Amino acid sequence: MLQRVLEPEVMDTPEEAVAYDSMDHSVVNALFADQLVADLLVYRQQASLDGVQRTLTLLDVGTGTAQIPIEICRRDPEVRIVALDLAEHMLALGRRNVERAGLVGRIDLQCVDAKRLDWADGEFVSVVSNSIVHHIPEPLAAFREMARVLRSGGVLFVRDLLRPATLAERDALVDLHASGATPQQRQLFADSLHAALTLDEVRQLSRAVGWPAEWARQTSDRHWTIRSHEVPVG
């Protein structure tokens, strides 16, 4: 099994932010947003929400340049999102992206450490995260904080890269999914895959914070997902 090799916890140079923001994440971001919005619908149905109650406040942990919150807000007009990251240059680009999308009033970008959240227990109806876990050397602290601020019965949707078993598998994934990328972008992707967790590691962390292990599944050739509301009502 390929051993985990950490990459920097915070990617916070202008060059790294631009390289990340310019990568084509459109397909995986759209899938993430579509599935999350479907889970929010399930939550609303289960909670019998109507009228003003249908407006939900989400926390996006590790928002990067805010591409995921923008996609979610475009699909669901009844959400407000607090989006956090530790990388100031990522957030600077994120603020530009949010402004261009016309979503300044709905997406609040903040510089906050995922391992030390500022909010009260159960503050958020939903906690989402895309591709931040592999940046964190000891992810248990971030898992505990996400579990703490998520309302009981709320919508949890966490997705990240899955560490391949071998270097050959890693390189094949880079060739498949980043064939048209720049050398810098290809290296970023390879490093991220090498820093990612295995499904067994994700399930161990889930159990440690009280989430059912079966919420965590492999959902593509390079992703795992923890999803609490996937099963439709009835």
Task: Describe this structure as you would to a colleague.
The protein is of the alpha/beta class and 234 residues long. The chain has eight helices and seven strands. A seven-stranded mixed beta sheet has the order 3-2-1-4-5-7-6, with helices on both faces. Strand 2 (79-85), helix 4 and strand 3 form a beta-alpha-beta unit. The model has no long low-confidence stretch (mean pLDDT 93).
Annotate the secondary structure layout.
Layout: H1 14-22, H2 26-47, E1 56-61, H3 67-75, E2 79-85, H4 88-100, E3 107-111, E4 124-130, H5 140-149, E5 150-161, H6 167-177, H7 183-195, H8 199-208, E6 216-218, E7 223-227
Parallel strand pairs: 1-2, 1-4, 2-3, 4-5
Antiparallel strand pairs: 5-7, 6-7
Helix pairs in contact: 2-3, 6-7
Global outline? globular
Number of helices: 8
Cα radius of gyration in angstroms: 17 Å
Going by CATH, the architecture would be 3-Layer(aba) Sandwich
Number of strand elements: 7
Count of discrete structural domains: 1
Helix- and strand-based class?
A: alpha/beta
Question: What is the spatial order of strands in the main beta sheet?
Answer: 3-2-1-4-5-7-6
| Overall mean pLDDT | 93
Structural key phrases:
234 residues; Rossmann fold; 7 strands; globular
